[in-house]
Amino acid sequence: MATEEELKAAEEARKAAEAKTAAETEAKKAAEEAAKKEAEKQASFEKWLAEQPESVRQLYNEHVTGLKTALQSEREKSKGVGDKLKKLADLEKAEDERKKAAMTETERLQAELQEAKNKAAKFERESLQRQAADKAGLPAAFADRIRGETLDDMVEDAKGLLEAMPKSEQKPKPSTTATNPGAGHQGAETDEQKRARLFGVQVDPFAEDVLRQKGGGVYFIKEE
């Protein structure tokens, strides 16, 4: 069951609809009355004109014809102005599109330039990271984890990473072989040492101790 407020709202809506309908009816009636009066006035004028002498009617027709001609001329002028305005609008639109296209091309070039700069900066940073890792003795696989703005900063950061790493993952120190003696090695390898390392120890087949071991050959005993 509807409440009192709902009934009141419905009643107000009904009254508003009736008032709107009444207003529309009055407006329509007023428009009809005005059209009727205008038609009567026109009929009265035409009746009055018909009763006038020929000279008056002729003068009236000339005046009306002049007004119609002037009106047509103004319409043609307005049409010409409208055509010019339309052409001008088309030109402005084409110019705007050209500017937008040029702006788009400029933006594309700027984007490509920025992309090239970013790639160059990335390549330079990766190069510094590798250098820092090498200087600090950090394995190259961890170079991308190095942080810093300069090479010195990166080297310090790489050293910190190296200290935090388990010993098994640290970069092995260079071996100190004969071909790579290391920083603490004194003197260069002799030719004899090189031959011994490459071909083994060489012996003289005619040496006295060799002949004794083989059980043959001639050898002399030196007197004391």
| H/E topology pattern | HHHHH
The best one-word shape is elongated
Largest sheet: none
Helical fraction equals: over 70%
Count the DSSP helices: 5
Low-confidence stretches: none
Q: Gap between N and C termini, in Å? A: 150 Å
The tally of beta strands, per DSSP, is 0
Mean pLDDT: 78
Radius of gyration: 57 Å
Strand content: under 5%
Structural class: mainly alpha
Explain how this protein is built.
The chain has 224 residues and is an all-alpha fold. The protein is built from five helices and no strands. The chain is elongated. It starts with a helix and ends in a 10-residue tail after the last helix. The model has no long low-confidence stretch (mean pLDDT 78).
List the helices and strands and how they pair.
Elements: H1 4-50, H2 54-136, H3 151-164, H4 191-199, H5 208-214
Short overview:
This protein is mainly alpha-helical and 224 residues long.
Distinctive features:
5 helices, elongated, mainly alpha, 71% helix, 224 residues
